[in-house]
Amino acid sequence: MKAFNELGRKVQRFAKERDWAQFHSPKNLSMALSVECAELMEHFQWLTESQSRRLDRRRKRAVEKELADIQIYLIRISQVLGLDLIEASNGKLLENARKYPVAKARGSAKKYTELK
Amino acid sequence: MKAFNELGRKVQRFAKERDWAQFHSPKNLSMALSVECAELMEHFQWLTESQSRRLDRRRKRAVEKELADIQIYLIRISQVLGLDLIEASNGKLLENARKYPVAKARGSAKKYTELK
Amino acid sequence: MKAFNELGRKVQRFAKERDWAQFHSPKNLSMALSVECAELMEHFQWLTESQSRRLDRRRKRAVEKELADIQIYLIRISQVLGLDLIEASNGKLLENARKYPVAKARGSAKKYTELK
Amino acid sequence: MKAFNELGRKVQRFAKERDWAQFHSPKNLSMALSVECAELMEHFQWLTESQSRRLDRRRKRAVEKELADIQIYLIRISQVLGLDLIEASNGKLLENARKYPVAKARGSAKKYTELK
């Protein structure tokens, strides 16, 4: 995981150099994360699902930047909270496998609370 | 980056086993991402910034799951779009360094459009 | 506008009776608003646009509650900020008419910055 | 409720003149609503709660426009779904009063599921 850890170090250094820790309460970072997610969504709000699968180059580059913004804030908030994103994600996938067993969830978009 | 790539493979397999690609248009995934970000934010909406920095164990575990949900969807949407999250994030950090030079941005929360 | 003003008075009284003004900073209320919008979006994230136009009764009732939550928080944040929602909305519609003249915007989902 | 109904008629006419109904599926409108809520939130993400209560004139005008955008989309989605916002909000306030009885909820930001 050298590249992911290296990215994490860069994100931390970036904030430190700019003395931004004062603004980076988890509360504020959760807002920033949501704002970036909305900037991503804005690219798709008037597109059909089909159009969203066939983005032109310009739009794809713009979307790529939004994904990066989200990843960076996600790393930052996990740092401030002292949480390990990869470990948490692996754990959550296991939990999701229990909530959405293949036999019941296959081909269905139902929320787990509605699966028989 | 073995752990991050391994996580990516798990996320892809998870969706494939459940035949979920049909629901995973970038449009839909951007909505799912925003929904998870809001579930994260819900933990902080009535807390002060200070309280958000000192979460109790129970709350921290809940927040950790939301961060995982966001990371998983972020990986999934980047897969569907054929984009590399780490590469995109490194590129965006370089761009952010240009928008927020240390000399101007240090100690300030101003948006880059407002920095002199 | 008796019904809208009456709703506003109820919203204000509701918060006052519960001594909630302390939590109702505009910052917090903007978070609460976003959280409710995401709860609304969650109903649509895996539906096609077409399915979203033909909701069954149960789903429609659930969506109706989310719209109400959003309206209530919107009224509350405008109260705390001392702003008039109807007046602001009328003003914004005029501005939107300038940004999206019928001749240019008709049948197009383009953002105003991209209209010739 | 003349002013609110008049606003509703304007919102409907605005979309009709521009032949925008094709884009206004409830799914799309829920995304647009969330995007506007995030634009509102962006004004507050680095402010303290206290600062958010004392906005300067320029910022207040900007926030006012975001509130208007949210109100307009909220009216639009309720129109497309054939729902009455005022009626729904009054109903939801009654439900909220049951979930948050004054005796239990006074001075507390706890979610109703956590109130004794």
List keywords for this structure.
homotetramer; 116 residues; mainly alpha; 71% helix; globular
Describe this protein's structure.
With 116 residues, chain A is mainly alpha-helical. Chain A has helices spanning 2-17, 26-42, 49-53, 57-81, 85-99, 102-105. In chain A, helix 1 (2-17) crosses helix 4 (57-81) and helix 2 (26-42) packs antiparallel against helix 4 (57-81). The interface between B and C is medium-sized, with 14 and 14 residues.
Largest sheet features of chain A: none
The two chains with the largest interface, and their residue counts, are:
A-B, 70 and 70 residues
C-alpha Rg of chain A, in Å?
Answer: 18 Å
Low confidence ranges of chain A: none
**What percentage of amino acids of chain A are in beta strands?**
under 5%
Q: What structural class do you assign from the helix and strand content of chain A?
A: mainly alpha
Q: What distance separates the N and C termini of chain A?
A: 38 Å
Helical content of chain A stands at over 70%
Shape of chain A: globular
Name the assembly state: homotetramer
Query: What is the mean predicted local confidence, pLDDT of chain A?
Result: 96
Determine the number of helices of chain A (DSSP H or I, runs of at least 4 residues).
6
Record field, number of beta strands of chain A: 0
Helices and strands of chain A, in order, run as HHHHHH
